[in-house]
Fold this protein.
Amino acid sequence: MHTPVLKKEILEYLNPEPNQNFIDATLGEAGHSLSVLEKIKPNGKVLGLELDPQLYSRLLQLHIDRLTIVNDSYVNLKKVVKKTKIKSFSGILFDLGFSSWHVEESKKGFSFLRNEELDMRYNKKASTLTAKDIVNEWPEQKLKEILKEYGEERFSGRISRHIVENRKEKKIKKTFDLVEIIWKAIPSRYRYQRLHFATRTFQALRIATNDELNSIKKALPQALSVLEKRGKILVISFHSLEDRIIKNYFREESKKGLIKILTKKPIRPSQEEIICNPRARSSKLRVAEKI
Ligand SMILES: C[S@@+](CC[C@H](N)C(=O)[O-])C[C@H]1O[C@@H](n2cnc3c(N)ncnc32)[C@H](O)[C@@H]1O
């Protein structure tokens, strides 16, 4: 079960009132949306987008009142909004990345602790590129770059070299094949750190497979355009590159006088939240209001 990150802060900034409507651009397991729906009773609605068809089906089965669920990417936000009957939105939330369900249940290779096919696509129809393709086909230099940039992996060079050497012998198919390669690639004293040694490589592959950074760049202007005046845009990110994209976008739009930035510095989770939900530890929330 996914525990929503920064839930209290999200509610404070969104400040949902009865009968207002909102967009949840990354519905996941609807944790944030359920608490918003409670506040916008009796007639307020949430339009939720979820790219993963399996998560989408699970959500449909819950029959949540006043929640419209669409199986599409936030890259297509404007089109999705055009098709709905809801015309005015007081806020939009992006909670980037994957949900606990992806790690624990999807069987798509998101977890380095489970031996699964290395796929990592949120939506198999939306993209043909898999994590398996990346590790078996991309040139060493390109692998090194994504591990360094998207994973902030200090051993990006050693790991990518080992990947390329190993794939000459045998195709890398499963998560554990990759975990073993990373294990051998890194110096032995780094194998037992607090953060699992495969975390950063897996993060980089997930971001690259789903083209996550370009997707958020494409979605932010659409988010702004579908909001009503004084509508809020809230983004929770988990990676410094994501956060920089949001920070720069907000800064540019604020210079043009189109938004007011409500968080001069990103909001971070409290120590209590990190203890209860370690996944929250790298989260950052930025909020802006449409002028
Ligand atoms: C961190 S989870 C959201 C969790 C949610 N806020 C909750 O409380 O349950 C992010 C979700 O966004 C979905 N997602 C990722 N990229 C997406 C995209 N481009 N468009 C729509 N959903 C996306 C993922 O499948 C995942 O379920």
